[in-house]
Amino acid sequence: MPHAVTTHPERRSRSADPARPGRRPWPRWARWSVALGATLMVLSGVALGGAQYLLHTATSKVTQQNLLGAAAAPQQQHRTITGAKNILLVGVDTRAHQDPGQLIRSDSIILVHIPADHSQAYLVSLPRDSLVSIPAYRNGATSYPGGQNKINAAFAFGSRGLTGAPALSHGFELLALTVRDLTGITPDAGAIIDFQGFKKIVQVLGQVCMYVDETTTSIHVGRDDSTGKPAAPYKINPDGTVNHRIPGVTPNVYTKGNHCLDPAQALDFVRQRDLLADHDYDYGRQRHQQQFLKAVLHQVMTGGLNSPTKLPGLLSAVGRTMTVDDGGIPLEDWAFALRGIDSDAITTIKTNDGTFNSRSVPGVGSAEILSPTSLELLRAVRTDTVGSFVQAHPSWVAASAPSVPAH
């Protein structure tokens, strides 16, 4: 039998932990400041009186770097947080790129749209195999002449020949320029989320509880049938695709249903795209990563912020997980402006209605073609009319997975 992670009977979720006797509950804006940490709405706050100090402490933990470069909005003398905002989030897996000569490709690309009233957030994922035009670019070490390719190649071409912080900044800049040319959207801020770093956040929390909406088999983690020790269950090609099953190793299987995942399991689960029960590959992985981010955010707000023993480690882990370009608007302003948004006010939207629209492209391989309606969705992001788009296309909203209380 496959090695399945422990499942737990579904229980009614709690919107928040009860306040301890004699302690004042955390204000909602303080809880949501950590949201910038799960989706660039992070940070933290505390009970009244120490809020400003801890907010400053939280923002100081976040690594800040010029990521947008030439893709940034023209600098104004006084940039403000008012109005609709668009944040470009890029997920990377640093463990997969330990070789300095290996290209860094973005695992997930998400546009976070905040309407002008700052009442909610929309997450729009761009499939990493989307066929796009990538502009010509030079990073100082090498150059890219421009051309058609998959969108996640933009990060690779921008960072080629570089390591460390320069690789991240140049990779992000070329990706942001590609997104700007595709959508007409000039990001107001940007962030790189390191999914390896999320393992540290889960370590502080102890576990993350979420609903797995389709049985998922790991191609990375399993157990040797004879020794019971961890072992790789599949041989993986250099491009990340599956070559063959390794005899004598049983892969981890995350069955459909409620799970409380330990740090290693959580990181393994959000990486999977090849052996999903519904055969939805990248669309499934995008959905699972979004669900994971929301589950972490929910657990941080309902547990982590209320724990004086967890809070310092949580802030440190969040800071190490993210690299942020605040777009010239202080992180404290971002946190305060987004204080009214909670995890229930985050809507995830599927490009191409979550269905494949592939085409074989010479020199590129099989690529996803964004449908006319997907381009309409991106125009709605640019013009702050996503609410109207959602009303007209309700099936494009990803169904929310049942929330699972931590225990």
From TrEMBL:
Cell envelope-related transcriptional attenuator domain ranges (all copies): 105-300
Keywords noted in UniProt: Membrane, Transmembrane, Transmembrane helix
Region (Disordered): 1-24
InterPro entries associated with the record: LytR/CpsA/Psr_CW_biosynth, LytR_CpsA_psr
Keyword hit for Zinc: no
Pfam family name, one: LytR_cpsA_psr
Biased composition regions of type Basic and acidic residues, renumbered to the chain: 8-17
TM region positions: 32-55
Family to which this protein belongs: Belongs to the LytR/CpsA/Psr (LCP) family.
Name under which the protein is recorded: LCP family protein
